[in-house]
UniProtKB/TrEMBL annotation:
Residues 27-75 form the NADP-dependent oxidoreductase domain. This is NADP-dependent oxidoreductase domain-containing protein. Signal peptide: none annotated. Gene3D superfamilies: NADP-dependent oxidoreductase domain. It comes from Solanum verrucosum. GO terms for cellular component: cytoplasm.
Amino acid sequence: MAAEGTKLGRMKLGSEGFEVSAQGLGCMGMSAFYGPPKPEPDMIQLIHHAINSGVTFLDTSDVYGPHTNEILLGKRRIHEMMGALL
């Protein structure tokens, strides 16, 4: 869901009709290339904020770790599921 007063557009990705938010979240700076890795709790909070704001395109790559940002996204999902259980 987009934050109140915010509307993210959608766009097709590729030729198969898959749609994502027009604005994405680039994850490269979370773990590499722009100084030391950022604190994991802060990055999980940022991912939550992006998704709660309507972002559905999260840009990751094995080059950044490998798998570092993909694991971070998985931890975000675990945090979300645990919150639903509490």
